[in-house]
Design goal:
- The complex is a heterodimer of chains A (about 220) and B (about 475).
- Chain A has about 220 residues and is of the alpha/beta class.
- Chain A has two domains: about 1-120, Response regulator (Rossmann fold, 3-Layer(aba) Sandwich); about 125-220, Arc Repressor Mutant, subunit A (Orthogonal Bundle).
- Chain A is built from eight helices and twelve strands.
- Chain A has helices at about 10-20, 35-40, 60-70, 85-90, 105-120, 155-165, 170-180, 190-200; strands spanning about 1-5, 25-30, 45-50, 75-80, 95-100, 125-130, 135, 140-145, 145-150, 170, 210-215, 220.
- In chain A, strand 7 (about 135) and strand 8 (about 140-145) form a beta hairpin.
- The two termini of chain A are about 25 Å apart.
- Chain B is an alpha+beta fold and about 475 residues long.
- Chain B folds into three domains: about 1-155, Beta-Lactamase (2-Layer Sandwich); about 230-300, Helix Hairpins (Orthogonal Bundle); about 305-460, Histidine kinase-like ATPase, C-terminal domain (Heat Shock Protein 90), CATH 3.30.565.
- Chain B has nine helices and twelve strands.
- In chain B, the strands form three sheets. A five-stranded antiparallel β-sheet of chain B has the order 2-1-5-4-3.
- In chain B, helix 2 (about 10-75) packs antiparallel against helix 3 (about 150-200), helix 4 (about 215-265) runs antiparallel to helix 5 (about 270-300) and helix 5 runs parallel beside helix 9.
- The interface between A and B is large, with 34 and 46 residues.
Chain lengths: ~220, ~475
């Protein structure tokens, strides 16, 4: 995957680029807004990682300009500003996700993965399937191996999010933001409790577990062990 | 409402007291002058009467009754202010210009005042006189008096005018006081309004200087200079917060990145993995504490005021309660949301949810197995209330105000995880909404309530919250 990194802090940039390269991505980098915009408009990227505050041209302006030129590359904002207001501004400017510094690299990787996957045209689905687990988005029904599973509305949303990102690492923060729309750290392991309840409903009594814990990162739903 | 508030102003009270004292002293002064003048006039009259009596009694001794009667008759005839009456032993008039002895006079007293009738320009007039009754030898009586009707009329006029004068004076004073207070109140209202807007977070507001160059303008000037200084200080604090945020976030990001990087490059079975992971957890703890502190600082600086919208507290509370319910259950505690109607306030959805999450998280942490946590959003006549009550150990009354302060953790909770910023954050979020946090006894347990006043923060009156508890607002 081709990734564009626009970040003015050289140390952070180096770290980001190295980490992404190690993860198997092809990375271009820019240290200011103008260079970044030029790169973004001249080459195709699967994802752009843009710092909010950049020299020469603000990160918000870079993305707004990209969208102005009908460039639909998914954008992940990186920012030292954590206020809800700033997040809203970033998303309004055309950003697709927003990550506050300092962040965990696994979090960044998981989000980039999700952004790249979002681009694939097959995202308009009415049914999701992972192994023998089926989710009907229209009737809001879940079945595993033909047996109906009774889910609370929020559990359904949680499972839906996990299944939409099947085979990808989904972090606790991503779940918190997408399923509950909370943008704060609840300190305690609330998400883990929700996951273990969901796991009890979908995996209990089946030989092959689908919902896996990815140590140090989050969760993943996948059909194979 | 308006008139009542005028009556309560200091200006009106001062004017009222001043007018009252002024009216009292003027009345006293007038009364004294009147009394003194009257006394002097009476003394003059009495002197004339005394002289006449002396003269007449001399006539009587020299010329006898006949002679006295003649003199009395001649004096009576000249039509002056003098009044005379000579009576015989049977109290029958012998001579004089009075028709008869006035009724009900005190024969023992020296000077007497009585009314008599006299024909003036053809009309019979009732007039006032002052005189003295003189006993002659041989049982005769002589009444010598002076007409004092003019003085009597003046006196009557004075006594009827005085109350009106005083009343009018009081009335004018009150009207003047009212106008003065109204003016003062208007100027003070301006200052109060400005103060309210500043409390609501708009530090650019200044008190209007009218240009009248009076003490209010002086006060406004001083207040504005003070506000300039506060704004500068606040700006400084905000700048420091921003740079601290940036300067700390950058190295923290690098630190976390390096640890992660190191971890990635270690073989999974390396002995250092556990150490690095522990270091990362510590770093995350620093980041959490730092973010909470920053949020508190920002909330206090009123930074997030822009993100306020009309929000219903009930679904926010319901969602957070639902979010925490499994965790509570895991801990053997029941968590229930008390059903409530719509509870609309002006607020920031995310911050209120976060504050409530902190309260519920605390409640779950401290409530023992078998306990119960209740979450409710209610509308009261005073405003909206968001309450989390538990059946845990509670907080001793003397420590309730203390725990809201930053980094304060009770001795009993020293060993459980947490930053010690949870309640401070809730209090800061409350302050940002013009609300306040109270901690009460739930008998047993703790009842934490965020009180959102009915009025929007910007127009919130500058009154202290109810004194029932020390509060964090």
């Amino acid at each position: 995957m081709r990734i564009l990194v626009i970040e003015d802090d050289l140390e952070a940039q180096r770290y980001l680029v190295n980490g992404l390269k190690e993860a198997g991505h092809v990375v271009d980098d820019a240290a200011d807004g103008e260079t970044g915009l030029t790169l973004a408009l001249s080459r195709p990227y699967d994802v752009a990682i843009v710092d909010r505050m950049l020299p020469k041209m603000d990160g918000l302006d870079v993305v707004a300009e990209m969208r102005e030129h009908s460039n639909t590359t998914p954008v992940l904002f990186l920012s030292a500003l954590s206020e809800v207001d700033d997040r809203v501004k970033g998303l309004k400017a055309g950003g697709d996700d927003y990550l506050t510094k300092p962040y965990a690299f696994v979090e960044l990787l998981a989000r980039i993965d999700a952004l790249m996957r979002r681009r694939s045209p097959s995202s308009v689905k009415t049914r999701l399937q992972v192994g023998d687990l089926e989710l009907d988005l229209l009737t809001r029904a879940a079945k595993r191996n033909g047996t109906a599973i009774d889910l609370q509305p929020r559990e359904f949303r949680l499972l839906e999010y996990l299944m939409r990102h099947a085979g990808q690492v989904v972090t606790r923060t991503m779940l918190l933001e997408s399923v509950w729309e909370y943008h704060f750290d609840p300190q305690t392991n609330v998400i883990d409790v929700h996951i273990s309840r969901l796991r009890a409903k979908i995996d209990k009594g089946f030989e092959l577990p689908l919902l896996h814990t990815v140590r140090g990162a989050g969760y993943m739903i996948r059909a194979h062990a | 409402m308006r008139t009542l508030s005028i009556l309560r102003t200091q200006a009106f009270r001062i004017v009222f007291v001043y007018v009252a004292v002024f009216a009292l002293s003027v009345t006293a002064l007038l009364a004294f002058t009147y009394w003194n003048t009257e006394r002097a006039l009476d003394a003059q009259t009495d002197q004339i009467i005394g002289a006449e009596i002396a003269g007449l009694s001399e006539q009587y001794q020299r010329l006898g009754l006949r002679g006295l009667a003649d003199v009395v008759m001649s004096r009576s005839a000249n039509g002056g202010p003098g009044l005379y009456l000579l009576l015989d032993r049977a109290k029958q008039p012998i001579a004089g210009n009075l028709d008869g002895m006035p009724q009900n006079i005190n024969r023992q007293a020296g000077e007497i005042e009585f009314d008599y009738e006299r024909r003036v320009e053809g009309n019979l007039q009732r007039r006032r006189a002052r005189g003295r009754l003189f006993q002659l030898m041989g049982g005769f009586e002589l009444l010598v008096a002076q007409d004092v009707h003019e003085r009597y009329l003046t006196e009557k006029l004075f006594s009827t005018t005085l109350p009106w004068t005083v009343g009018l004076m009081l009335l004018l004073g009150l009207v003047g006081g009212g106008l003065m207070s109204f003016n003062m109140l208007r100027r003070l209202d301006g200052i109060n309004r400005t103060a309210g807007q500043i409390i609501a977070g708009d530090f650019s507001r200044r008190v209007t200087v009218t240009g009248a160059q009076d003490e209010f303008d002086t006060l406004a000037g001083s207040l504005n200079r003070m506000l300039d200084r506060i704004e500068r200080l606040m700006g400084g604090v905000r700048e420091v917060t921003d740079s601290v945020a940036h300067d700390l976030r950058t190295p923290l990001t690098r630190l976390r990145n390096r640890l992660e990087d190191t971890l990635r490059h270690l073989p999974a079975d390396s002995a250092q993995v556990g150490e690095i992971e522990a270091a990362m957890r510590e770093t995350d703890q620093i980041i959490t504490t730092f973010n909470a502190l920053l949020l508190i600082a920002e909330a206090d600086a009123g930074v997030m005021r822009g993100a306020m919208t009309r929000v219903d507290l009930a679904p926010i509370a319901g969602d957070v309660a639902e979010f925490y319910a499994p965790l509570a259950e895991e801990n053997g505690v029941t968590l229930a949301m008390t059903p409530a109607g719509a509870t609309w306030i002006e607020g920031n959805h995310s911050l209120i949810a976060q504050a409530l999450a902190n309260l519920i998280d605390n409640a779950i942490k401290y409530t023992p197995k078998g306990g119960h946590i209740a979450v409710s959003a209610t509308m009261t006549p005073q405003g909206a209330e968001l309450t989390v009550s538990d059946t845990g150990p509670g907080i001793p009354p003397e420590q309730r105000a203390h725990v809201i302060e930053r980094f304060v953790r009770l001795e009993s909770s020293r060993n459980s995880p947490g930053t010690g910023l949870g309640l401070s954050l809730v209090a800061a979020v409350a302050r940002l909404h013009g609300a306040w946090l109270t901690l009460d006894d739930n008998r047993p347990g703790l009842r934490a309530t965020m009180h959102f006043p009915r009025r929007a923060p910007a127009t919130r009156p500058v009154t202290a919250p109810p004194p029932r508890q020390r509060t964090a607002a």
